[in-house]
Write a structure and sequence with these properties.
InterPro entries: Endo/exonu/phosph_ase_sf, Endo/exonuclease/phosphatase. By secondary structure, the protein is an alpha+beta fold. It is built from eleven helices and 14 strands. It folds into two domains: 2-77, no CATH class; 87-307, 4-Layer Sandwich (Deoxyribonuclease I, Chain A). The protein starts with a helix and ends in a 6-residue tail after the last strand.
Length: 313
């Protein structure tokens, strides 16, 4: 029976060591670590088994393992505390992956009208999808555009209600991450990035995924917001390093860090994970965050309302 206990416990213990240590022993771990919340939820099983069979050494290891996993996941379920921005000091950000342009155009427009974002960050923006959005009136609502549409999965774009000046494009592995500085009426200049690194679905794509995340600007100096499909959760080291540089994850700050954004129901027969984010400079308050359905795409759009500092930077 002792061998059975260790057989059940070992995968959880290894998971905890790799997650806490930030190591990637094989490329498949990049995808697997995204499911850490589920591993944390199941981690009491070997502890209960060890206690039931009076295997005290295994029970001690199982307790440390479970506490380690729960400690990195559970805070996402609780609000960090936030302040309410004044009406003229808000920045509302909506981000959506269009699934190679297949997302329903009318539903995208409904989201824009209902949520009234200042900035829309779009991933997998194809020329055809761009044209459909234009025809539906998106540029009438959000006339300032950074258009980096591209055939296939690599296109992206930014739509803004306020003037925007383009920054140098991040393009790695044929994936474009559009950048622009939004001139907010409050006097703030805020850089926004439409985030979309490669998906680490195969070994040869893993370096592109890592470099795509590493290329994202760290926080500090100018106010910045990173919004979109990160193909990574808060359990991935590159995202944690971005947070350490001075960002806050809007979902985590509002106690919604465990709400899955991919895959949307009916797309993939797997457990949902949280890979779409709005990361905001810590000098911004996080007023609200929400996740929304969107027909035609495997990702759920994410929306955040951010409060800007009282003094322009």
């Amino acid at each position: 029976m002792g061998a059975l206990v260790w057989l059940v416990l070992s995968p959880f213990a290894v998971w905890a060591v790799l997650r806490v240590g930030g190591w990637t022993p094989v490329w498949q771990w990049i995808a697997l670590v995204a499911f850490t919340p589920y591993a944390a939820a199941a981690s009491p099983i070997p502890l209960l088994l060890s206690l039931g069979l009076r295997r005290w050494t295994a029970a001690a290891v199982a307790l440390v393992t479970s506490v380690s996993l729960v400690a990195v996941v559970l805070p996402r379920h609780f609000e960090d505390g936030r302040t309410l921005p004044s009406a003229d000091q808000r920045l509302r950000v909506l981000a959506t992956n269009l699934a190679v342009g297949a997302a329903d155009t009318a539903s995208v427009m409904d989201l824009v009208r209902d949520l009234d974002p200042d900035v829309l960050a779009v991933q997998e923006l194809t020329p055809e999808a761009r044209d459909r959005l234009d025809d539906a009136g998106l540029r009438e609502l959000m006339p300032h555009v950074v258009d980096r549409a591209k055939t296939g999965v690599g296109g992206s774009g930014l739509y803004s209600r306020h003037p925007v000046s383009e920054r140098p494009l991040i393009e790695l592995g044929a994936f474009r991450q559009a950048r622009g500085v939004v001139s907010h009426p409050s006097g703030h200049e805020i850089e926004v990035v439409s985030v979309h690194p490669c998906a680490p679905s195969h070994e040869h794509k893993s370096p592109c995924w890592a470099t795509g995340l590493d290329a994202l600007p760290e926080a500090g100096g100018q106010l910045r917001v990173l919004a979109g499909d990160f193909n990574a959760t808060l359990d991935h080291l590159p995202v944690r390093e971005l947070l350490d540089s001075g960002y806050r994850d809007a979902a985590d700050a509002t106690g919604q860090g465990l709400v899955p954004t991919w895959p949307q129901q009916g797309w993939e027969p797997i457990l949902g994970v949280t890979i779409d984010h709005v990361l905001a400079d810590r000098r911004m308050a996080v007023h609200a965050f929400s996740v929304h359905p969107l027909p035609g795409t495997d990702h759920r759009p994410v929306f955040a309302e951010l409060g800007l500092p009282t003094t322009a930077t």
